[in-house]
Amino acid sequence: MKKSLQGYKTREAAREWMKRRGVTLEDIAELVMLLQGDYIEDLTMEECIKNIERVLAKREVQNCILTGIQMDVFAEEGKLESPLQEIIEFDEGLYGCDEILSLSITNVYGSIGMTNFGYIDKIKPGILRRLNNKEDGEIHTFLDDIVGAIAAAASSRIAHTRYSVR
């Protein structure tokens, strides 16, 4: 398979898998707006989405999305061996592999991504709150952090291109 064709398939698969898990670009854009709206007065949802798309265009981000969602799906289907099954199923607090995977996304646009990620991971607004809801039977141990990391990276990208001192 040609390298460029594989990249296209990876990009499309990552977007499709997120969509199937109930995550839209608009959901992520709301997080970006939360992170950057106080600092950039004329920030629009369209600009947020454009920056999210730039983050999603990176192969390392696509790989994180595919890996994380697959782990969540395996846990939902009970296909992991114990104790990993229970660790991911219940999103144990000391299991940091989901955050470590996501930190590779936050670092794409510099260290500000880590502080954005830490903040949004702590308060869990919008789509992150829904993804952390255990009552629907879905497991999003990895996906909630990945979505937060994408928002943090897009916010960092905006900050680097549109930063203004108040």
From TrEMBL:
Alphabetized CDD domains for the sequence: PgpA (cd06971)
Pfam families found in the cross-reference section: PgpA
Coiled coil: none
One annotated GO molecular function: phosphatidylglycerophosphatase activity
Biological process annotations from GO: lipid metabolic process
All copies of domain YutG/PgpA, residue ranges: 29-159
Domain of life of the source: Bacteria
Name of the protein in its database record: Phosphatidylglycerophosphatase A
